């Protein structure tokens, strides 16, 4: 067997409206075209990759390493302007942690506490 590419990541969220505000309005992701879902959720397209948000009304994220968010399960995305992303997140009240490695990257959390890495590139 040879894996040829990654297709999607599924992320659990408790409130689809709040999640959409974050992923669509703050991160600027575009909804993916797909057949109607048989469950509450939405899919977003990033190049040839998708992010699937699936509602679980009692979901609570676990971020065991509060000191270093990047050492927790996370989704990594690339942007063309990290400073712009940082400003947008902070203006909307989202906390950030800059990468401790010195890379041009930051970590934030969606409304459910899922960790998202945003890197320049």
Describe what this molecule looks like in 3D.
The protein has 121 residues and is an alpha/beta fold. It folds into 2 domains: 8-55, 2,3-Dihydroxybiphenyl 1,2-Dioxygenase, domain 1, CATH 3.10.180; 69-120, Roll (2,3-Dihydroxybiphenyl 1,2-Dioxygenase, domain 1), CATH 3.10.180. It is 17% helix and 34% strand. The chain has helices spanning 16-26, 82-91; strands at 8-13, 30-31, 41-46, 49-55, 74-79, 96-98, 105-109, 115-120. The strands form 2 sheets. The chain has a 4-stranded mixed beta sheet with strand order 1-4-3-2, covered by helices on one side. The mean pLDDT is 96.
Secondary-structure topology with pairs:
Elements: E1 8-13, H1 16-26, E2 30-31, E3 41-46, E4 49-55, E5 74-79, H2 82-91, E6 96-98, E7 105-109, E8 115-120
Parallel strand pairs: 1-4, 5-8
Antiparallel strand pairs: 2-3, 3-4, 6-7, 7-8
Based on the model shown, name its key terms.
single chain; 121 residues; alpha/beta; 2,3-Dihydroxybiphenyl 1,2-Dioxygenase, domain 1; 2 domains; 4-stranded mixed β-sheet; 17% helix
